[in-house]
UniProtKB/TrEMBL annotation:
Superkingdom per UniProt: Bacteria
Region (Disordered): 348-375
Comp. bias (Low complexity): 364-375
GO molecular function: single-stranded DNA binding
Species assigned in the record: Mucilaginibacter polytrichastri
Protein name as it appears in the record: DNA primase TraC
TM regions (residue ranges): none
Any Pfam family matching the protein: ArdcN
Residue ranges annotated for the N-terminal domain, each copy included: 2-94
Residue ranges occupied by any Polyvalent protein metallopeptidase domain in the UniProt entry: 147-271
Entries under InterPro entries matching the protein: ArdC_N, MPTase-PolyVal
Amino acid sequence: MAEIKEGNSLFQKPIKENGMPAFVKPINPTTGKGYSAMNALILGMQRHDDPRWMSADAARYAGNWVKKDEKGTMIEFPKTSDIQAIRTAEGKVIKDDAGVTQTKTVEFEKPQRGQAFLFNGSQLKDLQPLEEFLAKQNEGQTLSPNERAAKMIDDSKAVIIHGGQEAYYDKLRDAIIMPEPEHFENETKYLQTAIHQLAHWSGHESRLNRPMEGKFGSLDYAREEMRAAIAGILIGGELKIGHNFGQQAAYMSTFAKILKDEPFEIAKATRDAQKIANLLLGTSQKREQKQGAEPGFKKGDEINYLDTTYKVLETYKTKSIKVEDADGTRKVLKPDYGLYKSLLEAKTNPREPEMVLEEEQGQSEEQGQTQKIGR
């Protein structure tokens, strides 16, 4: 809200003073995985050029250290279990012959809010140079960001009609209306605008089925715009094409009102934006392909889970594994253990699960022969 009032939000200023994109997709360099939409937004709002983020424990385990006086950025995640020390009836910690504290995994009946403080790569010492990390990330990528964006738009099979001066999604015709490409400042601006309209297109009842009946200028209309804008930020960060929410001035005061009156709306909007990004980028399909093979562990696996990193020391024929966390605590996990299942999910799932929030969706009547969304 403060950034919106100052005119410095990601919606209003997609480019930083140094010419770099305002939002850089955050990634855990140890696991190579991204963060859930809400956490990605929180980390991206810190405006670092370095995409790498880790907890202090995970960084130390990887041989890196937090620089003096640096402050972490807090994220939240659904926590389904906790590792606790085993104690005697008198409350004394039990240790084995090697002096290692014995632990147990406690499962929660309902997910609880877990928290962790993460540090950006620029806040860490002895980290691989950013240029080398980015070069390795781009290995094997034969398409430019604009080419990847154009391919994503084409792969969506959305109906795009060129002509006129406005860019919008017509829900009744299930078609995107775009000005001719030459009317845009450059190809990137055209692609960014098309991606924003694709985000609205995703809400059709045959796809993600979001409520989009609000009239222009209404709160319901602004809620849909917020979802499309955040989705554009996430997709632009993934494709490295950046984002451009062209009509931001018309919605900022309404965005600020929504965030003030309905604080949880930002979490709901980012959850929906993640679904949009998954649909358009094909994340769901990639995940299904990965899960086609039987998932499992192998010796040497390093898995970032909650606020620590687990290293697989041994695997057994029974599928049990011996792991060591960043503090040096070792334990054997059987397939039916909660921590075993959580680590397997963390390894195979490319993103953190979102917090589940209850939401009420209002309904309104559809009017007119054309319903413009995302003007």
